[in-house]
UniProtKB/TrEMBL annotation:
Belongs to the SsuE family. Isf subfamily. InterPro entries: Flavoprotein-like_sf, FMN_Rdtase-like_dom, NAD(P)H-dep_reductase. Its cofactor is [4Fe-4S] cluster. Residues 5-143 form the NADPH-dependent FMN reductase-like domain. GO terms for cellular component: cytosol. It comes from the Archaea. It holds the Pfam family FMN_red. This is NAD(P)H-dependent FMN reductase. One of its GO terms (molecular function) is FMN binding.
Length: 187
């Protein structure tokens, strides 16, 4: 059986992104759970605003290729004006069922202030529309400057929740990616 492939998309373009720090911890936990991981850093992709008449604009094909290769996905975003960051929304607009259907998706959002519930709900809704499998364990990090300092995660409870997300996405991705003959049968 091949190694489970996990992809995380960082919806923040900031150089010192708390979202990126949190996703790095998620992917490290996934690697400990035996997944091969990739961070999709949207700063490295040319993705113009989505136009249905130009579905392959910029690096859209490369992004879709990365996403199709994944057995599991983690979506990470800061909350902006009560929703997800526009770079992540644009990236998701270039994707469809081929990239997401039946794949487990972990959700992670960060906020400078109060709990980022709206962005978690918006990500969950997008996943349902893409026929993905959003996990019940999700991570919202309020007051992010209290738990991430100088690019380091400093809060143990937050670290545990983030690492659990990486393990859970890997666990579900491994189970869902099995070939029918790999699934144990009851005796």
């Amino acid at each position: 059986m091949r190694e489970t492939q996990l992809v995380a998309i960082c919806g923040s373009l900031r150089g010192d992104s708390a979202t990126r720090v949190a996703l790095a911890h998620t992917l490290a936990a996934a690697e400990e759970a035996q997944a091969q991981t990739t961070m999709v850093d949207l700063r490295e992709y040319d993705l113009p605003m989505y136009d249905g008449d130009a579905k392959d604009a910029g690096d859209a094909r490369a992004l879709r290729r990365e996403m199709r290769a994944a057995d599991g996905i983690v979506l990470g975003t800061p909350i902006y004006h009560g929703s997800i960051a526009s770079p992540l929304k644009t990236a998701l607009d270039y994707c469809g069922f081929e990239e997401f259907e039946d794949k487990p998706v972990g959700l992670l959002t960060v906020a400078g202030g109060r709990f980022p519930t709206p962005s978690l709900l918006h990500l969950r809704t997008i996943c349902v529309w893409l026929r993905a499998v959003p996990l019940s364990h999700q991570v919202g990090i309020p007051n992010v400057s209290n738990v991430i300092e100088d690019g380091r995660l400093t809060d143990e409870d937050t670290r545990q929740r983030i690492e659990k997300l990486g393990r859970k996405v890997t666990e579900y991705a491994t189970l869902l990616a099995r070939e029918p003959t790999d699934v144990p049968t009851p005796e």
